[in-house]
Amino acid sequence: MRKIASIALAFVAAGACLVPLRASSHREAPLISQDPLADNTDVYTFVSPERPDRVVLIADFIPLEFPSSGPNFWKFDDTVLYEIMIDNTGDAVEDLTYQFRFTTQIANPNTFLYNTGQVTSIDDPDLNVRQFFTLTEVRGPRRTGTRTVIGQNLHVMPANVGEISMPNYVRDLGSGVHTLSTDGIRAFAGPRDDPFFVDLGATFDLLQLRTLNRRTGPAVDGLGNYNVHTIALEIPISRLTRTGAAPSGASDPNASIGVWSTASRPATTTRMAGGAVSSGDFVQVSRLGMPLVNEVVIPLGVKDTFNGLEPTGDGAALSFVTNPTVPPLLEALFGVKTPPTPRNDLVTIFLTGIPGLNQIGTSPRPSEMIRLNMAIPPSRNPSRLGLLGGDTAGFPNGRRPSDDVVDIELRALAGGTPFTPAFNVSPNNTLGDGIDANDTPFFSGFPFLSSPHPGNETGGPRIHSNPGSTNLNPSNLP
Amino acid sequence: MNTRHRLLFVIAAIAGGAIAAAIFSSHGHRAPAGEGRAAASFAADALRRARLEANGGYTLEAERVLKRALDYEPDDYDAQRMLGAVYLSQHRFREAIDVAKRAMRVHPNDAWNYGVLGDAHVELGDYDEAFDAFDRMARLRPDAAAYARIAYARELQGQLDAAIASMRMAEEATGAQDPESIAWHYAQIGNLLLQKGDVEGAAREYARAEHAFPGHPFANAGRGKVEVARGQYDAALTIYRALMKTAPTSETAIAIGDLLTKKGDSAGAEAMYARAEAIERDAWLTEARLTTNVARLLAERGVRTSEAVQLAEEAARHRKDIYTMDALAWAYYRAGRVVDAEEASRQARRTGTVDRRILEHAEVIDRSVAMQSRGRDTGTRTRSSSL
Questions:
Q1: How far off is chain A from B318, nearest CA to CA, in Å?
Q2: ipTM score assigned to the predicted complex
Q3: Under an 8 A CB cutoff, do A26 and B249 touch?
């Protein structure tokens, strides 16, 4: 720490007395490209509590969207292929894919303004920048399977610019939900409140888990007030199974699916013939299934490789799961005794599914995806701790927005689960970051995630601490 | 790349945990994890400020901070790979290549290193190596950084429409969190449109850049070029003079000099050309001594011709990029060495560039060669007929 401080001070001191020195001109393009537009943040999948014969699939992109990001408001990237994949056979190969492609239309190219006046409807001519999406279903492998366009020219919900530009975002602009002619599938795309909740600040401060260390006051949701961009679908269960029929019960081998999401960018080269720009192929640049696996389990040096992998290649990452890095940190920081390696319990939770709950088939290929048993009905009284809270309809059986995956995974990494009974004791099974719910109530119906925070939210940043908002508040309709 | 909040959360957790472990174990002779990352972050900011203020002093500070981190932890990957970018900005291209290749041995699939490698080879004129590196970068990680490099490769090959399309992809791929990069991309699109002669299209892109990041020097430089193209010399002078106060470059000084020449103010023009040369020579304090721009300046003006040749030849010993070869060609031409000029000009055109200055120089040189050749033929015929 002292050395970091000395480097920082050296830089600040140097900068303070920096004498301008001329630089010869050169034109290096920026090298740092965080690529948030093609950056998966979270995937959710659960049986809809609103229509229990249907499953909801949600993928979020673009992390840490500050609502007042004007004049460059966030939007989906027209060149990116956004996808949600479903494996219903357990071979780690997608059997169904839902592809979202976006196009941007600018009504008046002579102004750079996002809106040229007050916007009071989704068709308001004062909304200058609009996005539309096309939804394609692919049966079979996503690049070679049978493609069917099931929705076209579907409008994307715009940025919630602020209360002057958009006096009533929800009432005036609508829900953004499209009901398609194909099986009554419902689709949504647009900005939403980031449903993830975590005490980000305290975590940066030497992993100060407040369940163990209460010296630094109440936990604060570091993602409160931030938005993400969401693609969401609500699809009949029968459409997602391998047989095309709804499962007969939770033990039906047809009942479970695996879900993950990716973002891919067009391949291009310096020497394409005829001045063409892209070959039309796509390169996968981001991937997400189970929350925190990419981040907690996969080492930094191989993250890009992992992001480009198909789930069939996940066997190569097995050792990162059986020998995870976080449990030794928990031991070093807090003296929490954790199970010995190899951690086959984590392989079950994260890579193969739990037998009798959400394992797909009898010998699934280890791969990183969220597994959901679609025959388990939604809970009438959801527990934020999901399965650890006795709620089989919750994480890791699928993932609902209200599931507290930080606490659940911390406990799982510490061995505080029934898989490792000797370690399923306090503090292992009480670990948590102190943020138990989202800063904004979720809708009780599709697309469930709350409206985006407005750009001109007044009163400065709102601090969100526990007790959090209620989950799936029935009175809070989209 | 999932550099997102959960990633940050976990990086913090892991880095924080490692730091804590080092402290708690109280035998941490090695530098704590994360130090190189902090230094790399400082360096990234410094490089951006160097770009915005045209101030090479920031790159020196970036180098110092990174090397200090590497003193503590020589194998720190983040600091190592960022050092390659710093060397690039200092025109220390061969050192950048060395750093990139070392980093590749550690992480062969990190697209960043191919960006550094390709940038360095482009500057040295090793275009096959450069384009290979950019292609590899784009295969590993197609994103704004890769698309912008693909665009430059297309521009070098004279494919302006494809270059514009790639640069638009780069702009599209840049998030709202980075308005400076958004502006940079718009300005590059403007430059490409200007090359195509689309002045009003370029003006629109520069205006977008200004809207995204008010005061961006590349946007202002572009606005100046647009006013020149429109014949609005006073407006251009106002823009350029303001730019010289915030981000002085030799190009801007030369542009002012050229405008003053048009207005008949030769003394003022000479002062600006001298300023441009001084800027370039000052840059050698913070960067490698690359003499291309001074050679070009002298050759364009037709002054100190032998010095122009000497400086251009010095540059060409280190790099064979098309702009250096063009400077060499024009210096030779000014010195009356037309045959040498022709060969250098051929080298300057070898990528298929449609750069207007390179092609104008080439046309004059080719005409001159043709005239010399006709003169020789005429002389031969005259001699023959007199036999």
A1: 16
A2: 0.79
A3: no
